[in-house]
Fold this sequence. Notes:
The chain has about 425 residues and is an alpha+beta fold. The protein has three domains: about 100 residues, Elongation Factor Tu (Ef-tu), domain 3, CATH 2.40.30; about 230 residues, no CATH class; about 50 residues.
Amino acid sequence: MAWEQSLLEASFRGVVFDVLATTDARERSTVEHAYPYLDGADVEDLGAGARTVSLEAIFFGDDYEEQLQGFLAVLDEAGAGELIHPVFGSIERAQLKRYSIEHHADDVDAARVRVEFVEAIPGQPFFSRGLASLQAQAIGAPGELGRSAVSEALGKVVDTLRSLNPLKPLDDLRQAMLGPLVSLASQVSGVVTSGLDVLAVPRAWAADLSTIADAFFDLSASGSSLMTGWRSIESQWTTFRDAFAESAEVATGVTTWLPGSAPSEPQAIAAVAATGSVTGATHVALAASDLLQAEAVTPTLSPPEIEEVANAARTALDVAIEDCRRTFALETARAIAEPLRTQALAVQSAAQAIIEARPPLLLRTVEVTGNLRLQAHHWYADHARAPELARLNPTLRLPNALQAGEAIHAFAR
């Protein structure tokens, strides 16, 4: 897609303006080491400098003076502010360096303002801004499609069964639907369900189950740290599946229901179990999305921990896909499985983007006997990165007495 098809509305501190042109630049700091009687020089790379953004804004029309005054007012405010770049998107801390205003005799009722900003955040490359976070946000949408598809499939099975047997009580099916709903609802608070007859409105039952799962797999309520919260989510996933254990046992060995044929009550119960599996798995993926979004903003986990989160979410989705393939006919199962496969790929891509956004993880040899704070100072000239080293090496026996020659995990920079 060309940039002209994805332009954003430019603004600074919320004041919108039109842009004629942009110039974005970045340079690297270098030092040249020359030697007598030797041609050339050794060039040492000292790192990239801050990004600079130059914009040419235009204000025109009968009220251009009011527009211009409003723009200049926010430019004159001290400190950095959020700049929405028309091509690169949000720059959270853009510091104004200078601006100039141009009026031309040929452009009546118009003014051009040339503005130069410098980014006040270190280490931010072009186009990578928010990429991992955006990929993590994209995890949720396929799950909604999967839940919608399985809800529709369950509705068709139950509706067909009831239409063919309007006077049959279907007590086992009712219990298979109400039992897990009541059990799971009792373990969360603040959830309001529709209260509709589960056999008369099976799609409302699926919606109620999803509402309960929202609270059941709430990462923010599951622990003080991200990984503690995730361990709780994994435990909740087991509890959620156990609620459908009886339905899953009934579903074992049940033949697949083919649309156009008369479904049996066990086949309908199998559809209930599959719906529970899809609902739980997609909400586990949603919890992974929340964790990865938080991790993209403030890194706290090691690459193996991020891999663990991604693998657990993908495993839950894989289980749900297999349950649907055993329960529904090919076309129905495919309509459910494809969004789940897309969601599993989204989880993997987001986790990969977060890991790759960091420096390479290496096994570094301790050169100076001492604690982790001393190693962080020695390697990075920043003793405050000691908790990072502790996080990357959770199995260290004596983190306060590391010996020279010992190898530990650490980022390359």
